[in-house]
Amino acid sequence: MKSYRIACIPGDGIGKEVVPAGQAVLEALAAAQRGFRFEFSTFDWGGDWYRAHGEMMPAAGLEALRHVDAILFGSAGDPHIPDHITLWGLRLKICQGFDQYANVRPTRILPGIDGPLKRCAPADLDWVIVRENSEGEYSGVGGRVHQGHPIEVATDLSMMTRAGVERIMRFAFRLAQSRPRKLLTVVTKSNAQRHAMVMWDEIAVQVAQEFPDVKWDKELVDACTARMVNRPASLDTVVATNLHADILSDLAAALAGSLGIAPTANIDPERRYPSMFEPIHGSAFDIMGKGLANPIGTFWSCVMLLDHIGESEAARQLMQAIEKVTADPRLHTRDLGGKATTEEVTNAVCALLAQNDRLRVA
Ligand code: IPM
Ligand code: MG
After folding, report:
1. What is the CA(246)–ligand 1 centre distance, in A?
2. Residue 305 in contact with residue 23, Cβ under 8 Å?
3. Which of 103, 111, 123, 166 sits between 20 and 30 A of 90, alpha carbons compared?
4. What is the pTM of this model?
């Protein structure tokens, strides 16, 4: 039987609740499908590890993850540790260390979910945002001089490389090509940023020539926010820089009803390294430890994980179970205006997966 090694990194806050929930759902799926199994290993890196060891993960941590088939990540963020330390010490260390340069963020209004857009039918909002995940505004290049003095200077340099832009454009065009509408919007800000973003636009034109069947357009990032609200159906696949896509994807998640639902995949398309799957909601310290976290973002991330490792039938079944659960308002967590707990939602998804199994055997 096929066996997949999955590294679980719950991290901080509600990550510690939703990652075990994701693991339970994957176990239930493997038990129902019977064609494969998972070997999980859990790494307790994050804020608590930092307090004990002075770093978010051990120096040799990447080596420990190097040969797994996928990573399931919860969140990194701690109210007592500066955000740039938690981010750079764990999540970005893995994303950049494993050159997971394509960050993929699908957004849909799932059945039973009430989005804030009044004139938007659920089918009008079906997007995948592709976020450049290795450079740009998150390159980490910059510094501070004259710290604390009146003449202090600080810079954060956005680095764009031709190779980096080409590979994310190619990834986005390929993804757009694989979707029914074959439609890509390239987000830019080349009116104001007249060097790197102009190169970004030029590379889009070049790469587009390799994909004559993909329709594409260009949109300025500010105008794109308005278009997402006013004309959601005019978008399908969207590619943007690291920071632009960070912002657009929160807007997308909110327009789809809740940040608690949105999934993401940090992918190394060349499969030199493991890819990492995580909900986008973050550590949410205000609700941690109360069993209130919505595990759907993690479950949907598990769907992406399954697709990535090639178990697409299992991915389809899990997505179906997720949609059955969101369709039932009694199974909505607090972020969706409901009263259900993390455990109730998890049990409901697991029960549906087991039911599929019984139907199959019958
Ligand atoms: C995301 C998050 C992170 C980011 C935070 C936690 C630093 O907002 O994955 O979108 O900005 O990349
Ligand atoms: Mg974000």
Report:
1. 6
2. no
3. 166
4. 0.96
